[in-house]
Specification:
142 residues; mainly alpha; Four Helix Bundle (Hemerythrin (Met), subunit A); 6 helices; 89% helix; FliS; Flagellar secretion chaperone FliS; cilium; cytoplasm
């Protein structure tokens, strides 16, 4: 009973965090959510809880598809194209890890995603605000 209360509290906090987050923070939350779910999938795989493993890998895949599909390839140029290809590769590795029950493939995806998340954290506040303002102006012009 107490656990369901804690989970409800966490979900409420998450909804509040999402409602108050800027695009940079949302992307960071998605990346961290993917990393967390990879860890959960590994645990489920080790415990041979295949249904849970499947659910976690499916969630990570959905997050990576979202991150990939929100890249602006026109503005981001080569960097965005490289990230697009990297996200595609990670999705493929997740699918292989799921089929083969391969922990090393999950670790590989983690090792690819962590530096992206870490670089995202390092973006200066001024650059975030500048990008957010440019995006806002772009939406108003449309």
């Amino acid at each position: 009973m107490a656990l369901s209360g804690i989970n409800a509290y966490r979900k409420g906090n998450l909804k509040q965090d999402i409602a108050n987050a800027d695009p940079h923070k949302l992307t960071l939350m998605l990346m961290q959510g993917a990393l967390d779910r990879i860890a959960y999938a590994k645990g489920a795989m080790e415990r041979r809880e295949f249904e849970m493993k499947s659910q976690y890998i499916s969630r990570v895949t959905a997050i990576l598809i979202n991150l990939r599909d929100t890249l602006d390839l026109k503005i981001g140029g080569e960097t965005a194209e490289n990230l697009f290809a990297l996200y595609d590769f990670m999705i493929e590795r997740l699918n292989e890890a799921h089929i083969k029950n391969d922990l090393k493939m999950l670790d590989e995806v983690t090792n690819l995603l962590v530096p992206i998340r870490d670089a995202w954290v390092q973006i200066p506040e001024e650059a975030k605000q500048e990008a957010y303002e440019a995006q806002r102006q772009k939406r108003q012009a449309v």
